[in-house]
Amino acid sequence: MEKLIILRMFFCFPLVGLLLPDAGILLSNFPGKIPVVHVVIEVTLLLCISLCTAAIAYGKKRNQAPANEASFS
């Protein structure tokens, strides 16, 4: 679980590094085009961060489930 948290943090670093210049392009008085490669990388990083977050949430939810519940199979 700790490795997923660290992986998610390292996915955030390049995402922020790409979002800052792209936001600067969008907010400037002389807007240019955002490279398609940046958009693809940003979407991929967001997808990876979402998957890691879902795995972390699932792992925490699974660990917090009551262990003494009787099963009615």
Relevant terms:
single chain, 73 residues, mainly alpha, 75% helix
Overall description:
The chain is mainly alpha-helical. It has one domain. The protein is 75% helix and 0% strand. It has two helices and no strands. Helix 1 packs antiparallel against helix 2. The chain is elongated and about 55 Å long. Keywords: Membrane, Transmembrane, Transmembrane helix.
Q: How large a portion of the residues is in β-strands, by DSSP E?
A: under 5%
Order of helices and strands: HH
Number of helices: 2
Structural class: mainly alpha
Radius of gyration: 19 Å
Rough shape? elongated
Determine the mean pLDDT: 83
Low-confidence stretches: none
The main sheet comes to: none
How does the SSE layout of this entry go?
Layout: H1 2-27, H2 36-64
Helix pairs in contact: 1-2
Question: How is this structure best summarized?
Answer:
By secondary structure, the protein is mostly helical. It contains 2 helices and no strands. The protein has one domain (2-64).
